[in-house]
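SEVERITY: medium
COMPONENT: batch folding queue
REPORTER: lab tech (J.R.)

DESCRIPTION
The queue accepted two submissions in a row. Attaching both inputs and their returned structure tokens so the on-call engineer can compare them side by side.

ATTACHMENT 1
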Amino acid sequence: MSELRLLLPGPAVVGNLTGDRADALQALADLYAYPDPLPARGWVRANMVATIDGAAGDATGSSAGISAPADQTLLGVLRALADVLVVGAGTARAEGYRPLPARAAFAERRAASGQRPAARLAVVTRSGDLDALPELFAPDAGTLVVTCARAPVDRLRDRAGSDNVVVAGDDDVDPAGAVAALAERGLRRVLLEGGPTLLGRVAAAGCLHELCLTWSPLLVAGTAARIAHGRAASLRLRAAHLVACDDLLFGRWLVTDARN
């Protein structure tokens, strides 16, 4: 039935993605709304999917292999709420990212919030190697590049447009500097989609405010990465809500001790 059941706080029915899909989408958008008013520094929300045993992907390393239609629906809602979708270059290549289209179902909501018709895409790269992503830099795509001073910045500006390159950090991308630079551009509703290395860096820098995590009803074992890795982070989170749908569990977790 694709019924969305709120377990915490609750119980209650959020909506039905099969019977009343339009209403269910708006109910999800209300449930996952960004804070109002928004902090001036911006709000960084990460969205990830994991198996029951904690893997961030299938045997090939792809998150698509552990996702499901209801998870993709929620992903679409989260993207429709954001000002900017931030993703590492490696994940953008592996998952085939493209500029986001405007969605009529959320046009009124975005206009009321003073947002562009669709979220902008921001690709994070330390090396500046974006040759495998030509679709992201088509005319009028508006894709942002977030990089550091050691990267070939002039070449990136030629590729993406001088106004579309954000330099944050010297030898590596500085998460706090990147978030601040996006906020200065009016892009304060940040949706971070990984991959695990980028999420780990953002968490370790104290820049994460919220984690949306889908648990997929799969157990894959193997050596798959977790949803975050790299430098150690010690963040405490509290559950804002848990929603069950089609054997999936959607959790929204708020960081209680974000530093930036």
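ATTACHMENT 2
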Amino acid sequence: MAEPLDAVVIGAGHNGLVAAAYLARAGMQVLVLERRHVLGGAAVTEEMYPGFRYSVASYVVSLLRPEIIWDLDLPSHGLEILPLDGSFTPLDDGYLWMTNDHARTVANLRRWSKRDAEAYDEFGQLMADMVRFIKPIMSIVPPDPAGLDPRQWLPLRSLARAFRALPKDERAAFIQLMTMSAVDFVSQWFETDPLIATMSSWGIIGTFLGIRSPGTAYVMLHHYMGEVDGAFGAWGIPRGGTGAVSEAIASAARSFGARIRCEADVARILTEDGRAVGVVLRSGEEIRSRHVLSGADARRTFLQLLEPGTIPPDIEEDIRRFKYRGSSGKVNLALDGLPEFTSLPNKETTEHLRGAIGIGPSIDYLERAYDDAKYGRFSREPFIDMEILTTVDSSLAPPGKHVVSCFVQYAPYHLADGKEWDDLEREAFGDAVVDAIARFAPNIKDLILHRQVLSPRDLEDVLGLTEGNIFQGELTLEQLFWSRPAAGVGRFRAPVRNLWLCGSSAHPGGGIMGAPGRLAAGEVLRTARR
């Protein structure tokens, strides 16, 4: 029998690739196995229409950990992040426009409310302070609250000291961020409805909650934690689409000696005497390894890839309770030209098209979108986070043409009245998205050359995201830190020796971040040394 590998990684999503790169850099023999024909998982670029390349699922970058970029030297492997310029919210009677130019943003806000313009700096400073306080937790392996090793708690000492050092009002604000709704939190600073709606919309991304639901303030904070080239809270797109992030990490992993196989679908994780010893592919091929890391979510890893009865019944029950509740869809468009928003015609400027465009003009609009989802329907007037990617990276389409990414809330995985996400329902959802944009940019319907509509079921079937949840599990308070995905499994270690979680079902959660992969690799290496 061939000598076993040091590690097999299930899934070539960006977290799996990060884990593989760190393990290979440490000298391990690593093999990554990807089910699809293309690597990247949800961070993938594909040509779905001749000459047009879509960021099929994930579409923007901000949360990718700087230490991963430095450690793996990703720029030398082709990674280049192009910054988006703020956000634009079209309205029926005007628009709200915030840019990367601070003075210009304040002037735009002053048109709406002098109070809001004055509060903008105060709010921004508070969120920056909150991010500086909480961001180190992304690099901490959570302790096991039921464990007996006091050393696991040592990394939290600095966090406790930092919390005590916060001013009293900021300690109170942090508690509010962890418990309040996005609307209630933001409304403490601002009075303009479109501004509150725009800022609160960050709190519903990928979450089956409304902007008035407790817990959405934390999701908003999660999206503030990123940066692009040191710019706090900024977002960008990778040149070449989000697949370029995965390709750069894969290139780094290969440079350290890791191997990556596509079209290698793992059917089962092999175990012997309570220990993971390798995997079996759908083809029947058996691959032995000393460690198995899974970039798949917790449900797929523990309940589908392991033989029934492998993990303790209490942990199995916790894994079954871990919430996914997919609530999002994606629509990608190939356009023959630029859409034109009635409230700010292109003859005046097209600068507003170089950032995020939010179709969510009011608090009530966003809450009504959630009302549909609560009762098992996709939103007839959905919230859309829309980016015209080619205004920043023209290489994604032929000259003069454009690629538009539309991330959509809400599209519940479970539909009411016995409906399924069949072709008819998918196309009706796509129509609702285009109609919502056309309300503010009527010419878009005449520009569409091709559209790709992905329902939550498509995200599950094509990309392996259970129930279509983009974070591999909701980012709600009870599913964070040592409870992600369950108590006793929050340190990346499965209840099977030498089996590890390295995807977004593990701490600190989802987004193109890479932190779960890096932290899991660190735990594998510490165990291997012992």
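NOTES FROM REPORTER
The mean pLDDT is 94.
No errors were logged for either attachment.
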